[in-house]
Recover the amino acids of this structure.
């Protein structure tokens, strides 16, 4: 073989390893060959955390590799999302996130900032749950109904404090929509996530909070919090005595869903494997039992259905961000 033929042959062989039939296919065949990291963009105790950790525990024996939850909290979930968006798209860094992932770029645009990432930076894999939010107050308040709460807020404008998971976060948006509909004003205490927001409520640093049912059901059952209204289309099976916002005259629905995402550019064969093992884990009796223990029904959507849902839900979230406008606190 002459030198020219050798160069051409070597170049062709190198190129072949970059094609679907080469290295990528080999990586997919061996995937996963090491630990998978699932980024949780919120502090412990939030919806992504209380759903993600049971998922990881059920997943490990299926993939026969460690499933590691890595908390990257901050900016109402934007910090962890940015880490995931910038991660190597090889299937070993995935993102657990919630409804608020849909609004970050709209918030950036609202303030004239270049978005750090957009929805196009992620591949939706699956939705685990879609939890109707619930407005709760702590046991140190006198409110037994939403009307009592609203009447007092009307008398004491901007005195009652509500906590949230952060500005424009998943727990700020539904509360802001309710306040706008009710024509009342509360003081806002943003925190770094659903867990800290609930801690603030229980410690009476705030008096009200919109939370996922999964994250706050234990406090409700323990008598530390009272649910005044849910944001679902129907009453929650976990809280059958709690009326919906629509029953109480407010045309508001809001769900805190938890989904799994891969960074843009993850090879399709690996995405398929992620989708397959995710579905296998979520469909186990053990995962459903663990969710039931926190008052949560599995509401699974596979990739195609989740993508369609996310597209529609994102429009609602973006509309909510625009309706709130430039909030400073």
């Amino acid at each position: 073989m002459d030198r020219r033929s050798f160069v051409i042959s070597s170049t062709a062989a190198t190129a072949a390893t970059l094609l679907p039939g080469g290295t990528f296919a080999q990586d997919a065949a061996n995937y996963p060959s090491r630990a998978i990291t699932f980024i949780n963009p919120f502090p412990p105790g939030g919806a992504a955390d209380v759903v993600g950790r049971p998922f990881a525990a059920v997943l490990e024996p299926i993939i026969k590799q460690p499933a590691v939850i890595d908390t990257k909290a901050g900016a109402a979930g934007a910090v962890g999302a940015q880490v995931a968006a910038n991660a190597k798209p090889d299937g070993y860094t995935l993102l657990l996130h919630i409804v608020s992932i849909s609004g970050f770029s709209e918030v950036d645009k609202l303030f004239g900032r270049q978005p750090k990432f957009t929805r196009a930076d992620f591949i939706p894999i699956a939705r685990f749950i879609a939890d109707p939010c619930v407005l709760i107050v702590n046991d140190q308040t006198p409110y037994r109904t939403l009307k009592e709460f609203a009447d007092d807020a009307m008398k004491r404008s901007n005195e009652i404090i509500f906590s949230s998971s952060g500005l424009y976060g998943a727990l700020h948006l539904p509360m802001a929509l309710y306040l706008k509909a009710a024509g009342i004003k509360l003081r806002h205490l943003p925190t770094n996530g659903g867990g800290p927001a609930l801690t603030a409520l229980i410690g009476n640093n705030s008096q009200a909070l919109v939370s996922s049912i999964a994250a706050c059901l234990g406090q409700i059952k323990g008598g530390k919090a009272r649910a005044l209204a849910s944001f679902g289309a129907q009453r929650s099976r976990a809280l059958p005595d709690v009326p919906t916002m629509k029953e109480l005259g407010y045309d508001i629905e809001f769900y805190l869903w938890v989904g799994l995402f891969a960074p843009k550019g993850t090879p399709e064969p690996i995405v398929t494997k992620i989708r397959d093992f995710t579905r296998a884990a979520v469909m186990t009796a053990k995962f459903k039992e663990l969710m039931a223990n926190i008052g949560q029904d599995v509401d699974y959507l596979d990739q195609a259905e989740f993508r369609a849902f996310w597209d529609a839900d994102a429009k609602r979230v973006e509309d909510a961000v625009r309706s709130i406008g430039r909030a400073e606190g």
